[in-house]
DNA sequence: CGCATTTGACCAGCGC
DNA sequence: GCGCTGGTCAAATGCG
């Protein structure tokens, strides 16, 4: 655990997160090369990232600042990446800089049209039936903004980010021995999804991908505590 | 018994 | 057109 994980490793694995949505999506790599943090700060950061808006983080540098300032963190120094932190470490973050699918069709247009044509409102699209899926055939797919976390964890797969998630699927991805899990926010009217998978090359690495933005505050009571506590971290 | 998870089936998109 | 792959659905199953 004391090994410093550098940028090169993530670059090598870059095809993992960029495969989302069938097409590579441009990402700004936000890396904290020697950042180590404990579970509480990780929780706070993941929560912040999953609820970020494009308005609050329009660029890589802004996002970095937003993350760090929101968690009341300053860029840590190498010395804090020590085995004593153990458990989970926040390593790096990917953010999609553009939404290629949205560019193709227009997010709101597609959503509105598909809802009107299928006769369902947005709230019911998550439970779309096969017939409805057929009706949606030919519509351009839309992807919400995505954030990818890469963490090091030997025990936990799912980060506790303060939101409640319901697992709706699991899939074995080609050339990997570990299944990819699909989660959906349980909050009504919230269409945020996340996926969790382990790197085939290094099962200790967990890739957590958030898609979309929460339209509500975290429902987990623990989050407030962790965020409060994050203000007292000694970096 | 109710809710969450599992898992096989189905579908869309992509490459050849 | 066809096969492959990832994403999602929904019935079955598990669990508290």
TrEMBL record:
Give the highest taxon in the source lineage.
Answer: Eukaryota
**What name has this protein been given in UniProt?**
Uncharacterized protein
- Organism of provenance: Trifolium pratense (Red clover)
């Amino acid at each position: 655990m004391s090994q410093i994980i550098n940028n090169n490793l993530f670059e090598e694995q870059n095809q993992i997160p960029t495969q989302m949505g069938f097409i590579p999506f441009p990402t700004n790599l936000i890396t904290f090369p020697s950042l180590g943090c404990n579970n509480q700060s990780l929780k706070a950061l993941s929560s912040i990232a999953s609820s970020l808006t494009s308005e609050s983080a329009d660029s890589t540098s802004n996002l970095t600042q937003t993350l760090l300032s929101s968690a009341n963190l300053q860029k840590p120094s190498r010395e804090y990446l020590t085995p004593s932190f153990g458990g989970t470490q926040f390593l790096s973050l990917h953010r999609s800089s553009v939404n290629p699918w949205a560019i193709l069709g227009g997010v709101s247009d597609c959503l509105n049209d598909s809802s009107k044509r299928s006769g369902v409102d947005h709230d019911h699209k998550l439970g779309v039936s096969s017939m409805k899926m057929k009706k949606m055939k030919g519509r351009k797919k839309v992807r919400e903004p995505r954030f990818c976390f890469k963490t090091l964890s030997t025990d936990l797969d799912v980060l506790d980010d303060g939101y409640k998630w319901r697992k709706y699927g699991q899939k074995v991805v080609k050339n990997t021995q570990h299944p990819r899990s699909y989660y959906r926010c349980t909050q009504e009217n919230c269409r945020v999804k996340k996926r969790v998978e382990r790197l085939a090359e290094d099962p200790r690495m967990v890739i957590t991908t958030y898609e979309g933005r929460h339209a509500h505050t975290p429902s987990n009571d623990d989050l407030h505590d962790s965020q409060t506590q994050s203000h007292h971290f000694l970096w």
